[in-house]
């Protein structure tokens, strides 16, 4: 007997929850199919309904922007899917050459020093890095020194593993490709820095803000459940009154009062959470960090490209002059 009482005491709340859920579903179905008069459906406060619309719009904006911004978490988002780089372009000698040329280019300047390496730490899959590797491979094929920029004194670096003794560097196109390879490598690195800044400064906090939106949505669902529960008891009370079932009236009135109190509490909680979401400054701060990262990247890219374009323009003028002289 004691075991039976213990069993019923444990399952009692579960059956109550099941009964409440069934009552809510039944009430929801009756409302959907027009079996409940509109006047018998509890009207929620106008403030609550206005906040609902605003949070729905915010949730839609958050989802749409987050879906696109997550691309910055994938390094290869601008790497051509159809591109199949050759083994030569991905080899250690190409990576060694790019860093060696970059080291040569920083000598005697205020640019950050670059240490040449025999093998890059990682083969970055970005469009800029792919362009850099293609240009470097072409420069080497045209006879560029694997360890030094054309026109500069030799830099004391180790020859890349497996590389052959370079041909005499007499190709101006090879020299141009060297400059282009260095610029694209730096652009690729700058893009990766931008991506990391956007991921940490925007994606992470903006995603956390999404969790706050979900809390507000969960609170709204609690309001819906509480409203359905209240109206379900109101329908039971109305039916009992119409049937003259006086014995049940007191019980049903008590259930209605309890359900009203729960609805009021749930509505107040939801209003508070929705206001917190709408007034939170973090989304705008995150967006500011996003734009700052982009601005810094594009400013650095513009400065770098302007510099290399001037060098290439001068080289083109020199080559064109030599070409005309050779033609008499």
From TrEMBL:
Signal peptide: none annotated. Keywords: Coiled coil. The keyword Coiled coil applies. Residues 145-170 are annotated as: Disordered. The keyword Coiled coil applies. InterPro entries: AH/BAR_dom_sf (IPR027267), BAR_dom-cont (IPR018859). Residues 242-276 form a coiled coil. Pfam families: BAR_2 (PF10455). This is BAR domain protein. It comes from Sporisorium scitamineum.
């Amino acid at each position: 007997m004691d075991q039976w009482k213990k069993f019923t005491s444990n399952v009692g709340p579960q059956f109550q929850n099941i009964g409440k859920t069934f009552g809510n579903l039944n009430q929801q179905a009756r409302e959907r199919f027009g079996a409940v008069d509109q006047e018998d459906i509890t009207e929620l406060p106008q403030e609550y309904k206005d906040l609902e619309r605003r949070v729905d719009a915010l949730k839609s904006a958050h989802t749409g922007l987050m879906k696109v911004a997550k691309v910055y978490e994938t390094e290869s988002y601008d790497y051509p899917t159809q591109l199949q780089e050759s083994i030569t372009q991905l080899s250690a000698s190409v990576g060694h050459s790019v860093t060696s040329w970059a080291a040569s280019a920083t000598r005697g300047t205020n640019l950050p020093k670059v240490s040449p390496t025999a093998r890059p730490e990682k083969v970055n899959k970005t469009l800029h890095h792919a362009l850099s590797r293609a240009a470097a491979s072409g420069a080497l094929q045209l006879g560029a020194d694997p360890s030094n920029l054309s026109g500069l004194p030799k830099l004391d670096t180790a020859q890349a593993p497996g590389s052959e003794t370079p041909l005499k560097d007499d190709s101006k196109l090879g020299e141009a490709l060297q400059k282009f390879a260095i610029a694209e490598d730096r652009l690729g690195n700058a893009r990766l820095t931008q991506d990391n800044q956007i991921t940490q400064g925007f994606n992470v906090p903006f995603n956390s803000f999404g969790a706050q939106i979900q809390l507000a949505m969960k609170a709204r669902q609690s309001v819906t459940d509480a409203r359905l529960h209240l109206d379900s008891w109101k329908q039971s009370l109305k039916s009992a009154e119409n049937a003259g079932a006086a014995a049940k009236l007191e019980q049903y009135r008590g259930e209605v009062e309890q359900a009203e109190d729960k609805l009021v509490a749930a509505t107040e909680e939801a209003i508070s959470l929705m206001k917190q979401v709408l007034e939170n400054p973090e989304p705008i701060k995150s967006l500011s960090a996003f734009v700052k990262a982009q601005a810094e990247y594009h400013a650095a890219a513009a400065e770098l490209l302007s510099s290399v374009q001037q060098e290439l323009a001068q080289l083109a003028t020199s080559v064109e002059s030599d070409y005309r002289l050779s033609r008499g």
